[in-house]
Amino acid sequence: MGCCFSSDDDKSPQHNEPNERTKLLSNPVSNNSVKPFISDDYGSSTKCTHSHRVDKQSALNRILNQAATNVIDVSGLDSPLEQNEYLNRAFQYNQRIMVSAQTFASLQKKPSLLVDLPAPEKGLAVNPISSSDLKLVSLYIYFFLYRLV
Amino acid sequence: MEKPLDRCLDEVFNTPGVTGVLCADAQGLCLSSKGTAHPRAAGVITSLMKQAAQLEPTADNLPVLRLESESCNILIQGKSEITLAVYKTPE
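Structure tokens for the assembled complex are given below, as produced in the milestone run.
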């Protein structure tokens, strides 16, 4: 009979050229697997090359520079106020507040209760009519009505 | 005719501390007075009572007024057609 199929690879140099049997895709299951990139492996620090170290240092410097430009140092702003300057400014601000408050004072509603009395709370705080006086007038008004009717 | 009214005034006037009593009608006319209460005060007392009654028109009873001064306190109470004023010494 004849041979329909043979699994032997033809290793002749003529067959190194691509032909109809050349594999287009690499073998996924292969002994020669690509080693993964090892970056921060503690056990493999010795494998970091000098270039890799330089890249890390430059990245760190870039981050530090970016942070330095973005940071707002409040304590390092304008020089602190002196005592007399502080007091002067406080006095000026108070004067401005008083001037502007006068415009609002006219809009405030005046109290409607006992405006002519200097201390209305004293008059309102006196003891009310005693129960004996209350009974006196209430009782005698009925006497008068009863007697007059 | 005024005897019943006078007896009422006497009862009120004999109460300790009372120095005067006045009784007025709805028009402010003095029906009777006794002690320090002057009859001419009847109109003022009745008018005050009417003004005070307007503070609370829906109330069943008229309010009791107390006029305070250094020499005396005046208690005013009204009922239907009668207004009674009692003059008392300050406590």
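Chain B is about 25% helix and 35% strand. The mean pLDDT of chain B is 88. Further analysis is deferred to the final report.
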